[in-house]
Amino acid sequence: MIATWAMAYDGVKKASGELKNNISAADALEIAIKEVENHPFYKSVGYGGLPNEQGIVELDAAFMDGDNFNIGAVAGMQDVKNPISVARKLSEQQFNRFLVGDGATAYAQKNGFERVNMLTESAKSSWEKRIEEMKKSELSPYDGHDTVGVVCLDAKNSMAAGTSTSGLFMKMQGRVGDSPLSGSGFYVDSEIGGASATGLGEDLMKGCLSYEIVRLMGEGLTPQQAADKAVYEFHDKLTKRKGKAGAMSLICMNTKGEWGVATNVEFPFVVATETEEPKIYVARKGDGHSTIIEEASQEWLDNHEE
Ligand code: SD4
């Protein structure tokens, strides 16, 4: 299992332990993502997620089963504790697999998903503070955003991919990023591998980078080669044509459990394999089209904990 950001560590630990007991990739992915969604300190996923400019927490999530390509997704959903579970349930339907706004919220309610006011006091005060700061300076409202994305392989060689996010802090009401979009925020094919993205959705969705990485792995590239090629070539293309590229960090894994990461910002992520306990790594862009990946140092972990 590979997952975006250090916040995924507890979820990956819990889910990878269960994978050893032979649970499915889909179940493991849901366990891992729910753990992040339920944590009130993680400000951009689930409970405690930062709100949009109206002060409302709008949640996006997606689930994909790599065996049969089933996809379920929600966007702009409110007051539902575990968006990933709603997305997974939708993936089992024949029609109506991607629901937005009130429709997504109503579906979750009707199907018994737990309702919770997702705006914590702490997220509300961050929002109030940011409104004040924005009155005084040119501060970008969009700083600070971390989606949880997971790619998972199980003992029977099934794969799953999924995402969950409250999107960009101070986003416009109704704004949706890459996370619930197939091919952009996530993609998985159990005969090849899977990928997932985090970063600036407005740029990520221009490159369909999750699909591109899976396609490149299908052509024989290792996950690291595929991630490097897809992400840095697109970063260069965007920079050339538009002057700059937003933050883009991609994770991927193939059917052998080999993994790769590419990113144009400093990017922590978590990996657990059959032989390796869950570990936090930090990736950054190297020279040319390469990525430097190091295990997170004790100092880094201490800072993060704080
Ligand atoms: C979005 N990609 O809504 C998400 C936000 C994110 O790290 O991943 N931030 O655009």
Automatic annotation (TrEMBL):
Active site: T147 (nucleophile)
CDD domains membership: Glycosylasparaginase
Binding site for substrate: R175, V176, G177, D178, T198, G199, L200, G201
Keyword Protease part of the UniProt annotation: yes
Residues the UniProt record annotates as site (Cleavage): D146, T147
Assigned keywords, A-Z: Autocatalytic cleavage, Hydrolase, Protease
Domain of life according to the entry: Bacteria
InterPro entries noted in UniProt: Ntn_hydrolases_N, Peptidase_T2
Keyword check for Zinc: no
Gene Ontology, cellular component aspect: cytoplasm
Gene3D superfamilies in the cross-refs: (Glycosyl)asparaginase (3.60.20.30)
Gene Ontology molecular function, alphabetical: N4-(beta-N-acetylglucosaminyl)-L-asparaginase activity; peptidase activity
Protein name: N(4)-(Beta-N-acetylglucosaminyl)-L-asparaginase
